Amino acid sequence: MPPKTIKYIPISSLCGGTKVETCYLLQNPQIRPKKDGSNFVTMELRDATGKITGIMWDGFDAIVAGTIRDNDYVEVTGDILVYNNQLQFKVSRIVKINDSAVDSSKFLPISPIPAEKLDEQFRSIIERLQDADLKRLVSAIFSNSEFMQRFRRAPGATTMHHAYIRGLYEHTISVVNNALKIAENYPEANQSILIAAALLHDIGKVVEYNYEKKITHSDVGRLLGHIAIGYGMVELECAHLADFPTAKKVILQHIMLSHHGMMEYGSPKRPKTLEALILHHADDLDAKIGNYLDFAAATQRNGIRWEFNKMFDRYMFSGGDNVEGADLMEQISRGFVTQDDAEDA
């Protein structure tokens, strides 16, 4: 008997009022109590195009028993509803699917920028390094084929920004470009230091994250964090390079240690040089713009213009030029102008 064909419907194409049977990646299933003393289950269902909240009112014995767990691929059947202006999956049936039966590439989000284009931009950036010592260091780190293979695939974060395959690659290049644009206004800035620091500031994320089935922290990532890991990588590589200037290493490591800007945001040090200040703001800007663009695209797909954004800790607008009340405001303004003209006459 031939194996069953696994149905797959991208989350981005779901719409309210439909019944579906499809395959997704299950995350964070939670057994919750109802007022009558019985239980229900909430979950998050994901694929490469997005996520949707799922809810099961019954039929979830496999989740209770632990035979279906977090990070399993599952086939789900149910209804797509609209609740509080958000799509919700009311799951009536859930079955675990063997990993080997699933194309995992459909379930991890990936940068829309082709790897080849990022490769080209990355090579051109390294060629801009004028300082021979810094170019030697950067080239030594990125010429490690195993490291580079992971660097080209690693996400930029787990949730907040560039949380997708190749996100780190995309983010790193954008931070370099941001830093150099800012430095155009400040000719005192050392461009080679900026380029090297921007290229290396997040290299610890190659170890900090796991990203096989879902994007999450590794044990080392939780214990040390990418700033400490990256600092150690540079320390080790400099030790292997003959006569690498200690002063340049210290300046570079200071920027890496301070790029989050504040200790409460994870930086062991705060920026104390011109290049450290520029790099911090270049990094922060790209993280926030990246977050906003992803947020805006997702809310627009769902027909929503306002939604609370965790990174910004406020409701953010994604409606473009479609500003509700603008026509009324214009009418009222014209009325005031007309009245003022009549009084002047």
Describe the structure in your own words.
By secondary structure, the chain is an alpha+beta fold. The chain folds into two domains: 11-106, OB fold (Dihydrolipoamide Acetyltransferase, E2P) (Beta Barrel); 115-294, Orthogonal Bundle (Hypothetical protein af1432), CATH 1.10.3210. The chain contains twelve helices and nine strands. A five-stranded mixed barrel has the order 1-2-3-5-4. It is globular. It starts with 17 loop residues before the first strand and ends with a helix.
CATH architecture of the largest domain: Orthogonal Bundle
The level 1 CATH classification of the largest domain is: Mainly Alpha
What's the story with the biggest beta sheet?
5 strands, mixed, barrel
Oligomer: single chain
What's the total number of strands?
9
Strand order of the largest sheet: 1-2-3-5-4
CATH topology of the largest domain: Hypothetical protein af1432
